[in-house]
Amino acid sequence: MIRKYVYGTPFDTEAVVGAYDLGADQPPWLTVSASGRRFSCPLEEEDQVYGLGEQVRGINKRGWRYVSWCSDDPYHLETARSLYAAHNFLIVTGPTRTFGLFVEHPGRVTFDIGDTKRDLLTIETEGEGVALYLVEGGGPWEIARSFRKLIGRSYIPPRWAFGYGQSRWSYFSADEVRQVAAGYREAGIPLDMIYLDIDYMEGYKDFTVNTEAFPDLAALSAELKEEGIRLVPIIDAGVKVEEGYPVYEEGVSKGYFCQNEDGTPFTAAVWPGWVHFPDVLNPEARAWFGDWYRVLLDQGIEGFWNDMNEPAIFYSRARMEELAGEKEKRMASGKTEPEALASMREEMGTLSNRLEDYRSFWHNTPAGPMRHDAVHNLYGGSMTRAAGEAFARYAPDKRILLFSRSSYIGSHRYGGIWTGDNYSWWSHLLLNLQQMPGLNMCGFLYTGADLGGFGADTTEDLLLRWMSLGLFLPLMRNHSTLGVRRQELYRYPDSRAAFRLMVGLRYRLLPYLYSEFMKAALRDDLYARPLAFVYPEDDMARQVEDQLFIGESIMIAPVYTQNAKGRYVYLPERMKLVRFRTLERWDEEILEKGHHYISVALDEVVFFLREGHLAPLSAGGACVEQVTAEDLTLLSFGDGAAYEFYWDDGVSTDYTDPAHITWLRAGSPKEAFHEHPGN
Ligand code: MIG
């Protein structure tokens, strides 16, 4: 049951596509301020809070103040209030009440979840105009599903996007890309994607290619595709200001860029130098920007990642001019240039992502002109939407890979997200796990973190442990920044066999992982499930913050501390431990409900099977296209174990043909494979 309450005149973010009732009487436990911007309700001692998508801290979000304000935060510290996304949905669940709240509002929103006062939840929007959706009925898992139904089906990528991807800022030339492909091939480690960071472009100009470094992108793309590898280029939000560059010229002549108060395009500095931001909140401009992706699609590219779309601003031209004036002023009053600059250190330290800049430019939205800060959180997701809508026009029957850095609820229908610039820190390995369920609740299923960590030098053991988590997550990409230790798996000869096992196991598990993803997407369900949702009656399970269910059959409990030889794992019921030592050899052991210390060597993968469930294993492959659903091996626990298996062609958008579903039963995989529901 979903009821909508309206305060003021909300901006339609188009997040909601499903059915709801207009609420008449507000629930008595919800206090709303006269301004219609502040909502609070008491939290009971036992209440837990879930959701909020891309944020720091635990799966249970209680005890911190989070702010939805899409931000290019390069640290992701425990004390961060905001990351790149605005995911304004949470679930409160406790002994007397379980409900979900979605705050539809495109500007800044603060969620004080028992931070200021341990027993109080307060949600406050900065601007006016709020639509509040109250979701009730059932436990937290049902609430999550009802909400997902309200916001519409999550983005589904092509199956090859469930392969393993290697990224780096940057692979600077076609030859470097070929070396990466060869490195993986020679090491015998599967690979499906190589990512191109900003240096494939000419002068960081979107939809251009640096033809000195990449003389023939179409040919390179075709050559790699022969080996089952796709190139996935980055697209940045800012369009370079440069005479003769058609994206710039068209955008200016059509008025498709975000504008200053006086109607001139807003100018900021990002990687290319001065840029304008396409006004993706204007449907016409959005269609125009989306169409530009065809330049790369026409060269055989089938996937993209959208970056810098909070939008990230190094500094604005207006601010630079202001500072230049200030410097002149100080020099006129007797300071030398270095003295003037030294005295302005404070001003110059706060140049990037300034609120004043976000308050200075405008969008042309269907609801009329909107100042950026009032709709800030919609920008990145609308860039994703621009691409997603264009793909649907260009190739309606084909799936194209797309994920973004910034996002809002609603943009989950157009693309996935990655979680941005994490660090090669053990704490960020755990954060990766803890972010997954909240992201899924907010609609983001195709998602993952930079495996191995983006910033700082990784270590071999961190990379190993991170890969053994990453192999279970939909977006499995290893990415790292300029200048840090290389993270390509083939560069670690001592761990070659272990990486072959970890990535290889991803491909062996693909039938299960893909099937679970597709069922979650098509049924508005979670792919990554907190134990609290699966065992809501189990007090211990409700507290588990470092284990997850991946679909219905598999529970994971990764090691996330350095030098640990294993870890404690809580089993809410009897489970079967599965320990992979090589791709072909694994041990199984049945463990009783309760706490167990489980040893996990650096070169092993350990997971748990739920009783009465099974997971199909393929024979593996060097790329996803080689993985077939023939001759599946069934990992199962319990004689009656059965599994609803989803498998389609992995490329087209015909998702709902009933022939995609077969039932697998422990003991007779072959027969089971041909047994359709209802037979
Ligand atoms: O200011 O394109 O999060 O993945 O490698 C940094 C360079 C810009 C930020 C992205 C990161 C990417 C990097 N980008």
Note the main attributes of this structure.
binds ligand MIG; alpha+beta; 41 strands; 679 residues; hydrolase; Glyco_hydro_31_TIM; disordered C terminus; hydrolase activity, hydrolyzing O-glycosyl compounds; globular; six-stranded mixed sheet; 17 helices; carbohydrate binding; nine-stranded parallel sheet
Q: State the shape.
A: globular
Q: Alpha-carbon distance between the termini?
A: 34 Å
Mean pLDDT: 97
- Rg, rounded, reads 25 Å
Strand content: 25-35%
What is the strand arrangement across the widest sheet? Answer: 27-26-24-20-15-14-13-29-28
Class by alpha and beta content: alpha+beta
The share of residues in helices is 25-40%
Total DSSP E strands? 41
Named once each, the bound ligands are: ligand MIG
Largest sheet: 9 strands, parallel
The number of helical elements comes to: 17
Low-confidence stretches: 669-679
Descriptive account of the structure:
Residues 527-613 form the Glycosyl hydrolase family 31 C-terminal domain. Belongs to the glycosyl hydrolase 31 family. The chain is of the alpha+beta class and 679 residues long. Helix content is 25%, strand content 25%. The protein contains 17 helices and 41 strands. The strands form 10 sheets. It has a 9-stranded parallel sheet. Helix 5 (283-291) crosses helix 12 (379-394) and helix 7 crosses helix 8 (337-343). The protein is globular. The protein starts with a strand and ends in a 6-residue tail after the last helix. Residues 669-679 have low confidence and may be disordered. It binds ligand MIG.
Topology:
Layout: E1 2-7, E2 21-22, E3 31-32, E4 38-42, E5 48-51, E6 64-68, E7 85-86, E8 89-93, E9 98-104, E10 109-113, E11 120-125, E12 130-136, H1 140-151, E13 164-166, H2 174-187, E14 193-196, H3 217-226, E15 230-236, E16 239-240, H4 246-254, E17 259-260, E18 268-270, E19 273-276, H5 283-291, H6 294-297, E20 303-307, E21 315-316, H7 317-332, H8 337-343, H9 345-349, H10 355-358, E22 361-365, E23 368-371, H11 372-375, H12 379-394, E24 401-404, E25 407-408, E26 416-418, H13 426-441, E27 447-448, E28 450-451, H14 460-470, E29 476-478, H15 496-522, E30 528-529, H16 531-534, E31 548-550, E32 554-556, E33 566-571, E34 575-580, E35 586-591, E36 594-599, E37 605-610, E38 613-617, E39 633-637, E40 642-646, E41 661-665, H17 669-673
Parallel strand pairs: 1-2, 7-25, 13-14, 13-29, 14-15, 15-20, 20-24, 24-26, 26-27, 28-29
Antiparallel strand pairs: 1-12, 3-4, 4-11, 5-8, 6-10, 8-9, 9-12, 10-11, 16-19, 17-22, 18-19, 18-21, 22-23, 30-31, 31-32, 32-37, 33-36, 34-35, 34-37, 38-39, 40-41
Bound molecules: ligand MIG.
The site of ligand MIG has 11 residues, from loops.
